[in-house]
Amino acid sequence: MSSPKYLLAEARLNKAVAAALIGYLNHCRDVVAAYLFG
Predict the structure, then answer these.
(1) Which of 14, 18, 25, 35 would you label with 3, given CA atoms 20 to 30 Å apart?
(2) Domain limits of the chain?
């Protein structure tokens, strides 16, 4: 069985990864928009 502490750390890591991915995608979208419509 996984310890609650480990599960909490994993959830935090997943959140951080998701946030980083969303930020990266938003950045890419902004770059593409600037390239197309700039």
Answers:
(1) 18
(2) 1-38
Angstrom distance (rounded) from CA 38 to CA 28: 14
Residues 11-25: tens digit of each pLDDT: 999 999 999 999 999
pLDDT at residue 2 tops 90: no
Residue 38 one-letter amino acid: G
CA dist., res. 12 & res. 18, Å (int): 10
CA gap 7, 13 in Å, rounded: 10
Q: What pTM, to 2 d.p., does this model score?
A: 0.69
